[in-house]
Each structure stands twice: as structure tokens, then as C-alpha cells.
């Protein structure tokens, strides 16, 4: 009969022999002795017997060191596939259709070309030696005490004495499908199975034992590839008994991702006894083989290595540690965790191109050599997602720009480490022994000395502000500092508001620091505008929304510097830092810029040659701070009241050393009158000039320049002018207050006097102004007097009238008065006087009038005084609002009803 499609099962319960037989081109017949035999159905085609074993391997869940015991819930097990062997008939061969005959064919069975022996779960072993066979007994073997051993067949390459199974060291290659796990860990991860396949492709492993049985395979495998440079797996040892792993050990080489240190991962899985039975327990030992990485030799690094401004990395700890590698790279990042279940942080010292170093700790992953030189895009993305914005503490000093290390040095508080793909061929990276990824510097939390130094703070100062959060500029990464100048940007702008005394007492420079540039140190406002168009004052000093209403840079406390500067000329303020020989830090701010010519705010006249120079140098060494500040404005003039008062200044300089008193140097070349007061200047030239000339008073808080022109008494017949003086002064504060000017004609204490015959008067006028407004105070008086003396009687009368006005820029006070006094004296016995006083003034919206009459009488020794006064207030009033007239709807309805008859239908 044709056996094709027929499945025959060999069962022998005594020794648990279980085999399934399948046939291909086989005919069952009988020989001459009437014994059933198997022959080829078609002698022109090959004939085969397929021996199919039960699954020989299983995958068990492993208890990872540090995890909770599996306990009674242990149920993680999966069986491998069946194992098939193939026996091919020789031409004209007849095989007895008996148990002995079929098992005899099994001894010469081979592996199908497309399969191997899955004696380890998802790892198919393929013998390399051509002369191999299987050794087993066909007859049932029972000892004298009634014990029957398990039937099994062993793969061997040595024939050995007949009937004796001898040991062997057969070379084997391995194949895997890298099937994923359904639980966390097993004896071999998918990565390790791939590594075994790759290693055996270079050099076969040795099988000390490969035995098949109905209960599973017993194997003893070992491999040594330590001398093969580019092979991930350096050692492999596997022992399994009847399908269950007993001891599995692997030694894999790779890199610490993304830093590139050469590392080794030793993983050992042993079967141990537990209260719940024999279970597998796994532990891994992570060892750093090379503790230094030279980044200057790296190939294919994006952006010429600017994304990670270090030239060397040194790994300090841990160099050896028991770890847990939770995932294989195909499933995700193979993070390195401690046995306590927390991510291992590796302490690394990074040395920059300026010789500085930064110590930080960051997590890492294990990437085997099998993946190290290929596409690590998924690993880079996963690492960046987990760590790219997670700041880790750091200490040390970093130069962010390799091409300009001295001007980009900052003290680091924390940093974020990410990863970047390396764009280089696989073979190039393999020959260079370099990981296909490099670390990248994400955000950096650092102290910007150029800002903190001008606030007088040291790095150890408890009052130091929060460090700035920086990130490397994208344009800089792509093009370099030569093309863009700006190399870093602040995640959140910081307000830099040094005191006026910190920039020479001349100007205040509140700046919204948005980034860092090689040319100027710090950049304010819009970085893109600075990068494309250079220094634009409006954009440079423009604050971000979160800074609120940051004051604009000012000159003399109130003039906007952004309006005085020109976008076509000049440069931005330059703030730079450097190192001192003793290890300290020095910060320097300089600004040399011309101003836009013209009259600004009707006050400051800027000439074409006017220049503004600011300089501040601060040195910090430990907890000591030494500083020197200088400010100078040259060739300008101050004009007031439309040029009525002009002060020409050749040089206005301010110098301060630390906490000492400031040194002031002011060169005033001329103080004169112009405009409507030009006649006073002409008069001043005609009159004798005081030897001292204009009066200049310099103090630590300001500079006052004043000039007083005193007019001598002018008698002209019946006309007499006395006590007339014209004065003008300008106060330039050095503490941030605005400039203030004062112009006066005489004063309240010393009014001018005018006399014409019997009539006379006087008064004063004072005008004070600053950028906020003008204050005016004036008073004028006039009057007449007459007297009569008849000997026995005398009488006198005087009449005075005047007006007073005061305006403080918001409210006007205006007052007028009339005063009349009369006296009569008769022989000294009777004396009568009458005083009449009238006053009228404006108080807000009210007009207030007051009158007072005082009568005094004295007769001999008797005297009496009577005063009568009255006051009246007249209000301008205001119409009541609608809500006052109609507080509810009822009054409104009544009012509308009153007019209803007037409405025509």
C-alpha cells in the first residue's frame, strides 16, 4: 500500500518512546520471507521517512534578581516546535517495517535543509560536520531491579564501538526567528538569540551533548568568540536537561549608549530550589571595559560636534554593578537598571575644548555590537524622549563654543543629555570602533557671569539668582559661530537691570537677555533680528511678554537710549567673561557708540561728534568681588525752555572703584541764555562777570551747574529798579533720578522792587522743570501810599494789590488780593485805623472770596479793636448723572408720564 499521507506513531510506554513517522514516495510491501518492508514507490524519485519528535524545548519565565519572587503564580512557560529528522532511501533499499528496522533508519537520519534541531527555544541547531549520526538502542532495556531508562537518541560524530554511545564535540551553527517574549525575562532574550546566530556564522559553537527524548532535549553547548573583534557575543554556555534549562550564561560586548564607552554584560541564569519548586533565577553583571572616549576622533558626527561641546569623556562610576537590562533594542531602549529597580546613573566627567570639565550623572542603555554600527534612530528618539529634557545635576565649568572657548565659559548647575545619530557607513563605524550615536547637549542650567558679576554676586552667594536655562542655537549648530555669531538662546528671557552706578552713572541699561553671542557676550530682545540685521536698538532691548514692563534703557535717568541710537551705526553692548590666573572669573561690559545727532526731547542736543562710552569690569575670586566702572558722554549740550538756557558740556565722566567714593570729571565749557532770553546773555556780556563764572557743584549723587546774573540798581528819575537777579541751574543726578532745571527772576526771599514816584511794587518768578513736567510759581504786587500832616492832626493811607499763581503741572492755584490801610491821629490823643483786606482765590472747581475789616481805636488810655470777616464760596457745580436723578424705574416712569399728554397720537 502507498504510505504517503499516512502518519504512523511509534509508542512504547515502558521507556516513553514517542515518534511520529510520515512518508514520502513510500510503498509498504512484503519480502520473500513474507516480512513487511518499506520500499520506494517510484524508484525514479527519492523516497523519505520523516521522524517527528515531540517538542524538545520550552521557554520559562525567569525571576530577575531584585524582583519579587515568582511564587505560586509562576505560570510563564511556552513550548518550542517539534523536531524533525529525515531518512532517505537508497536505490533499491528495503527497510523492514518493524520497530528495530525503523529505529535503525533513525541512526542515519539527517536534518531537512530548511530546519534544525530546536533543542533550545527559538534556537535551531544545525550540525556543521558532514559525518554525523544518531546513537540509541532499539530494544527495551530493563535492569535487574525492574528499572527501565528513558529512551533517547544522541547526536554523535564518532561511530565508536558497536552499541556504545560515546561523547562528542560537534560544531554547530544556530538559527533563530527572534520570537518575542510574552513575559519580562527568559534565559535568552531575543537580542541574545540573534547574537548567537551571528556568532555561529563566524565560528560554530561546540555541542558537547545533543540528546533527544520524548520529554525534551538534553544539551550542553559552549561557544567562545572572545578573539573576534566585531562579534557581540564573546562567550555562551547552555545546559538543559530533558527540555528545561539548568544553566545559561552569556557574555555580550557593546557600548554604553549614547556615550560610547566599551562595556560588557555578563548574564547568568541558574535553576534554584524555591518553596514553590525549582525555578530559574537570573542575574546580570555590567562591566565597563574602557573608561575614556576621545570624541575628537569620532567620525560622521553631525554639525562637526557642536551639539556636544566636549572633547573627552571619562567614566568614573559605576565600573562594575549588578544590573537588570529590561528590554532588547528591537522592542525599545535596553535601559540599565539596578537590582533595586531604579535606573543606574553613570557619573561622567566631560572635558571641553578649553580644558574645563563638567561632572554629571546620566542614565544609559546597553547596545550590543550587533546594533552598534547600524541605524539607531529608534534608540536616539527613545533616549531623547526620556532624557532630552530631564535635567540632571552637574558641577563644573563649560565652554559652549569650541571656536571661542574663552568667551563662552559658564558655571553649570544642571544639564540635559540627549543623543544624536551618526551619519557614517556601517563599515566605517565598525573599523573605527565607534557607536552610531553620540551624546548631545540639550538644555543647560548655568550661571551667566556677565549678568551676575554686575550684581556683585559670587558663585557661593546664598542670594544668587536662579541660573539661566540655555540651549544651543539651531542656526549655530548648522552653520557654526562664524556664520551666525549667536550660539545659545535662553529658554526664558532674563531681565538684566544693573544699577545706574554699575554702568558709570551716565545711563541705565535694563536688558532682556535672550541669548549669547561671541561678539557681544549677551544679546537682548529678538535673536533672529540680531542675527540677520545686527544691532537694532528697538529689537535688542525689546523684552519678552513674561518680563512685563521692563524699563527701557535710559540716559540721565529719563531719556530713552533706543531713540538716541541709530541702527546704521554703532554696536551692541558687549558683555564677556574670562579666567583669572588664580582660577577666578572676570567679566567685562563695554559699549562704545555714537548717538543720533539732533535735539532730543527738546532738552538734549547731540552733536555729530557726540560719543557714549560705558565700561565695567568685575573680578570674582572666591567670595571677594572687585569692580571698576566708568562712564563718559562727550560733546553734547543741554537746552531748556526752547534754548532759553544752554549748557555746553565737553566731557561728563564717572569712575568708581568697588565701594570707594566715585570720581567725577565734568567739563562745562559754557552756560548761557538764548531764545527769548538772549537779551540776558547780551546783558551778561556787558556786565562785569564774576571771577568764578558758572558755579559747578559735584557730589556723589549728582552734578549741579548754575549761573546767576545780578542786575545793579537802575535809577532813572522817578523810576527805580532794585534787587533784580536772573538765575538758572541744571541738576544732573547720578542715582537714576531725572535731570532737573530751574529758572528764576529774583526769589520769594529777595523779590525785585520797582518804584515810580509814589507808586511801587515787586515780586518774583520761579520756573522748575524735569521730564515729567514744569512747575511755575509767581507773585506780583503793586500799590500806592499818601500821607498828610497838619500839626494838630496827621493822616496816611496806603493801597496794595497783587496776584499769586502756582502750577505744579497738574493743579493751578490762582489768588488775588486787595489791601487798604488808613490811619488818623489827633494830637496823639485819638488814634483810629481801619484795615480792609479782600482775597479771591480758586480752589479746584470752587471760587472762594474772603473779606476782613479791622477797626482799631485808641482814646487816651482806652483802646479797642473790632474785626468783621466774611467768606463766600461759589461752586461751579456739575450736572447730576442719570443714576442720581433716577435711582429706580419709578421716577423715570413718572417723568415720562408727565410728558405723555404732549405726545401726539
List keywords for this structure.
single chain, 905 residues, mainly beta, 15-stranded mixed sheet, 14-stranded antiparallel sheet, 59 strands, elongated
Question: What features would you describe in this structure?
Answer:
It is a single chain. The chain is built from 14 helices and 59 strands. It is mainly beta and 905 residues long. The strands form eight sheets. The chain has a 15-stranded mixed sheet that branches. Strands 46, 47, 48, 49, 50, 51, 52, 53, 54, 55, 56, 57, 58 and 59 form a 14-stranded antiparallel sheet that branches. A hairpin with a 5-residue loop joins strand 44 and strand 45 (663-673). It is elongated, with a radius of gyration of 52 Å. The N and C termini lie far apart (123 Å).
How do you describe this structure in short?
This protein is mainly beta. It has 14 helices and 59 strands. The model is unreliable at 159-167 and 500-504 (pLDDT under 50).
- So what's the overall shape? elongated
Low-confidence stretches: 159-167, 500-504
Topology, number of strands:
59
Share in helix: 10-25%
Number of helices: 14
Q: How much β-strand is present in the residues?
A: over 45%
Structural class: mainly beta
Distance N to C terminus: 123 Å
- Main sheet, how many strands, which sense, barrel? 15 strands, mixed
Radius of gyration: 52 Å
* Mean of all residue-level pLDDT scores: 81
Amino acid at each position: 500500500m502507498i504510505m504517503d499521507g499516512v502518519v504512523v506513531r511509534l509508542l512504547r510506554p515502558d521507556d516513553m518512546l514517542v515518534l511520529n513517522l510520515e512518508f514520502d514516495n513510500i510503498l509498504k510491501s512484503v519480502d520473500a520471507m513474507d516480512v513487511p518492508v518499506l520500499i520506494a514507490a517510484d524508484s525514479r524519485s527519492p523516497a523519505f521517512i520523516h521522524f517527528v519528535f515531540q517538542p524538545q524545548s520550552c521557554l520559562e519565565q525567569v525571576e530577575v534578581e531584585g524582583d519579587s519572587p515568582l511564587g505560586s503564580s509562576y505560570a510563564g512557560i511556552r513550548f518550542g516546535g517539534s523536531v524533525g529528522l529525515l531518512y532517505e532511501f537508497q536505490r533499491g533499499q528495503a527497510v523492514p517495517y518493524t520497530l528495530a528496522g525503523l529505529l535503525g533508519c533513525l541512526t542515519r537520519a539527517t536534518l531537512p535543509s530548511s530546519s534544525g534541531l530546536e533543542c533550545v527555544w527559538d534556537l535551531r541547531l544545525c550540525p556543521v560536520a558532514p559525518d554525523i549520526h544518531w546513537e540509541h538502542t532499539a530494544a527495551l532495556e530493563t535492569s535487574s531491579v525492574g528499572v527501565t531508562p528513558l529512551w533517547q537518541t544522541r547526536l554523535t560524530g564518532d561511530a565508536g564501538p558497536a552499541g556504545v554511545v560515546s561523547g562528542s564535540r560537534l560544531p554547530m551553527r544556530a538559527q533563530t526567528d527572534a520570537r518575542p517574549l510574552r513575559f519580562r525575562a527568559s534565559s535568552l532574550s531575543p537580542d541574545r538569540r540573534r547574537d548567537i546566530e551571528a556568532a555561529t556564522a563566524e565560528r560554530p559553537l561546540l555541542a558537547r551533548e545533543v540528546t533527544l527524548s520524548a520529554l525534551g532535549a538534553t544539551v550542553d553547548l559552549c561557544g567562545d568568540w572572545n578573539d573576534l573583534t566585531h562579534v557581540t557575543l564573546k562567550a555562551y554556555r547552555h545546559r538543559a536537561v530533558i527540555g528545561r534549562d539548568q544553566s545559561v550564561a552569556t557574555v555580550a560586548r557593546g557600548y554604553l549608549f549614547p556615550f560610547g564607552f566599551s562595556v560588557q554584560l555578563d548574564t547568568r541564569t541558574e535553576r534554584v530550589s524555591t518553596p514553590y519548586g525549582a525555578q530559574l533565577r537570573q542575574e546580570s553583571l555590567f562591566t565597563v571595559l574602557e573608561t575614556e572616549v576621545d570624541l575628537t576622533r569620532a567620525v560622521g558626527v553631525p554639525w562637526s560636534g557642536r551639539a556636544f561641546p566636549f572633547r573627552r569623556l571619562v567614566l568614573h562610576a559605576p565600573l562594575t554593578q549588578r544590573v537588570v537590562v529590561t528590554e532588547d533594542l528591537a522592542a525599545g531602549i535596553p535601559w540599565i537598571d539596578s537590582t533595586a529597580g531604579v535606573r543606574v546613573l553613570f557619573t561622567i566627567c566631560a572635558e571641553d575644548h578649553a580644558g574645563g570639565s563638567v561632572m554629571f550623572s546620566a542614565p544609559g542603555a546597553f547596545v550590543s555590537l550587533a546594533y552598534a554600527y547600524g541605524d539607531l534612530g529608534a534608540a536616539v528618539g527613545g533616549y531623547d524622549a526620556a532624557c532630552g529634557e530631564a535635567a540632571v545635576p552637574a558641577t563644573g565649568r563649560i565652554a559652549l563654543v569650541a571656536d571661542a572657548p574663552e568667551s563662552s565659559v559658564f558655571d553649570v548647575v544642571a544639564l540635559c543629555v540627549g543623543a544624536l545619530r551618526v551619519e557614517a557607513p556601517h563599515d566605517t563605524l565598525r573599523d573605527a570602533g565607534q557607536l552610531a550615536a553620540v551624546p548631545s547637549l540639550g538644555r543647560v542650567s548655568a550661571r551667566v557671569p556677565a549678568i551676575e558679576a554686575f550684581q556683585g554676586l559670587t558663585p557661593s552667594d546664598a542670594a544668587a539668582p536662579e541660573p539661566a536655562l540655555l540651549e544651543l542655537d539651531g542656526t549655530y549648530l548648522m552653520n557654526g559661530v562664524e556664520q551666525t555669531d549667536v550660539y545659545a538662546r535662553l529658554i526664558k528671557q532674563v531681565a538684566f537691570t544693573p544699577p545706574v552706578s554699575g554702568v558709570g552713572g551716565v545711563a541705565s541699561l535694563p536688558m532682556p537677555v535672550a541669548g549669547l553671542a561671541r561678539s557681544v557676550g549677551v544679546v537682548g530682545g529678538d535673536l533672529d533680528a540680531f542675527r540677520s540685521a545686527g544691532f537694532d536698538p528697538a529689537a535688542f532691548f525689546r523684552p519678552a511678554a513674561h518680563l512685563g514692563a521692563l524699563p527701557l534703557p535710559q540716559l540721565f535717568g529719563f531719556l530713552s537710549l533706543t531713540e538716541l541710537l541709530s541702527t546704521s551705526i554703532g554696536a551692541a553692548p558687549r558683555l564677556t567673561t574670562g579666567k583669572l590666573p588664580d582660577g577666578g572669573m572676570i567679566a567685562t561690559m563695554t559699549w562704545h557708540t555714537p548717538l543720533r545727532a539732533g535735539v532730543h526731547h527738546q532738552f538734549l542736543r547731540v552733536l555729530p561728534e557726540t560719543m557714549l562710552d560705558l565700561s565695567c569690569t568685575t573680578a570674582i575670586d572666591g567670595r571677594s568681588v572687585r569692580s571698576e566702572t566708568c562712564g563718559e558722554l562727550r560733546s553734547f549740550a543741554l537746552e531748556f525752555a526752547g534754548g532759553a538756557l544752554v549748557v555746553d558740556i565737553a566731557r561728563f565722566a564717572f569712575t568708581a572703584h568697588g565701594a570707594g567714593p566715585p570720581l567725577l570729571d565734568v567739563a562745562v565749557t559754557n552756560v548761557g541764555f538764548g531764545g527769548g532770553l538772549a537779551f540776558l546773555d547780551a546783558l551778561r556780556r556787558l556786565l562785569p562777570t564774576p571771577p568764578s563764572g558758572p558755579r559747578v557743584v559735584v557730589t556723589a549723587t549728582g552734578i549741579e551747574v548754575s549761573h546767576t546774573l545780578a542786575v545793579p540798581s537802575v535809577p532813572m528819575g522817578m523810576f527805580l529798579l532794585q534787587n533784580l537777579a536772573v538765575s538758572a541751574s541744571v541738576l544732573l543726578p547720578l542715582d537714576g533720578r531725572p535731570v532737573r532745571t530751574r529758572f528764576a527772576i529774583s526769589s520769594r526771599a529777595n523779590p525785585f522792587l520797582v518804584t515810580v514816584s509814589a507808586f511801587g511794587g515787586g515780586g518774583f518768578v520761579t520756573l522748575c522743570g524735569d521730564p515729567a513736567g514744569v512747575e511755575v510759581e509767581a507773585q506780583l504786587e503793586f500799590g500806592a501810599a499818601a500821607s498828610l500832616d497838619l500839626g494838630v492832626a496827621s493822616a496816611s493811607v496806603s493801597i496794595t494789590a497783587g496776584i499769586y499763581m502756582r502750577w505744579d503741572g497738574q493743579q493751578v492755584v490762582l489768588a488775588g488780593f486787595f489791601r487798604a490801610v488808613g490811619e488818623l491821629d489827633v494830637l496823639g490823643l485819638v488814634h483810629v485805623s481801619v484795615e480792609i483786606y479782600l482775597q479771591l482765590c480758586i480752589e479746584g472747581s470752587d471760587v472762594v472770596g474772603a473779606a476782613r475789616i479791622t477797626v482799631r481805636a485808641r482814646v487816651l488810655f482806652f483802646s479797642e479793636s473790632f474785626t468783621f470777616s466774611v467768606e463766600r464760596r461759589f461752586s461751579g457745580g456739575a450736572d447730576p448723572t442719570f443714576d442720581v436723578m433716577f435711582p429706580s424705574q419709578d421716577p423715570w416712569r413718572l417723568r415720562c408720564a408727565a410728558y405723555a399728554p404732549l405726545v401726539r397720537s
